[in-house]
Amino acid sequence: MFTPQGLLKELAPCRDAPVWWLGLSGGLDSMALLEALTQLRQTHDLPPVQAIHVHHGLHPDADAWAAHCQQQCDARFIPLHILRVELEQGASIESAARAARYEVFESLIGSGDYLLLAHHRDDQLETLLFRLVRGTGLRGLSGMPRQRSLAAGRLLRPMLCWRRSELAAWAVEQNLLWIEDPANRDQRFARTALRHELLPLLRQQWPAMENSLLRLADHVSEASSLLDERAAEDLALVQAEDADEWLAPWPSLELESMLELSPARQSNLLRYWLTKHDCLLPDHRQLREVLQQLPAASDSQPVTLIGDYQLRRSSGRLWLLSRAGVSAGCEQALAAFVDTRLVNGNGELIFRPMPGGLMWRPGKWRIDYRQGGERIKLSGRPHRSLKQLFQEAAIPFWLRPALPLLYCDGRLVSVAGRWNSEDACAAPDQLGWQISWQPAAQDRPGDKGFGRSA
Length: 454
Description:
The protein has 454 residues and is an alpha+beta fold. The protein folds into three domains: 4-205, HUPs (Rossmann fold, 3-Layer(aba) Sandwich); 241-326, Chorismate Mutase Domain, subunit A (Up-down Bundle); 332-438, no CATH class. It contains 13 helices and 20 strands. The chain has a six-stranded mixed β-sheet, with helices on both faces. Strands 11-14-17-18-19 form a five-stranded antiparallel β-sheet, with no helix packed on it. A hairpin with a 3-residue loop joins strand 18 (411-415) and strand 19. Helix 1 (4-10) crosses helix 2 and helix 2 (28-43) packs across helix 6. The longest helix has 30 residues, at 209-238. The chain is elongated. The two termini are 26 Å apart.
């Protein structure tokens, strides 16, 4: 039986959070959670509660639903944030709406905050069955996690131990008003059909099925935790750590170390690594393709596209990049040594005073990009081609076309500030300029967020 006091026990992990955010659709489940939190606040010292309603605009009554949520929150003196979203085209409506909701949640959650979602036991069972019939891996069989990280905070599902019928019985006792979304009975949606057609038949034929499946999810979750522990140990061995500011934004794995692992550990490590970077996990075919490319010839540059990102083998590493890759730049004039945003979305050049740095002098300055055959004279060294410098520094092939080159009166004087021409620099006791290249945020996996977990 559901009670606010029982809910309080489930909320124990987040009692010290700065804010509790409640995902409020206005349906039975979230309204029960809203009311239970309201009652608990009257007798317990709890974090401040704020609610979030995502307006998808998919139903003619969507405005009325938002107004209902506003009215219910106002009556309980709980602030409500109503955010309208536009769904991406191409994906299923269910998937697009879910992705939009999580984008909203992540935009609001602050450091240490908790997002509370009202998923219940029936939702968990439906999730398991849906993943089974659709096809899933080990992590999918563990169901929706009770809690996980979300943006700068955490997500918690405190109602997974109660059935919907228990929540409904309590909501009726409390005289709650809630919204009935017609989509929840529209069997054109796969999950709705599973809920109203398949699930009742399974319960009738195998009454113990529900407990068996949920127990399986617990066992699988435990096994997944063990696999994650092993993957974390392997990642510490193969993850490339870059002091090089050019390469640090892009995660990579050392191929030589990775190839020392068994195929099963390689597969487990790759899934774990991609999950840490919020990436959609590859299917079986894509995963096999990536693993087959690991021992390829050193001059091979295979690429595997998966969702919004790509895995690219280059310079002895496996790199994680956005699907579009790194933007190639376009020529532009440079009027002065000031922070300069590069055209074609290629990031920014940052200029800072530094003894012995690049000197500004009168002339025609421009920013350009590699065409082939460029050479530069470094301090105490003979002229070198950019190809030689890139090879010596292990700059991967995919990054080279994006590196900004500085020219003065047609002569190459700096390669993105990393290599400066000897006669273009100030003396060690004279002030010049340090130049650094900041790649565009959309090119870097850590800034984009390529996929989301349950």
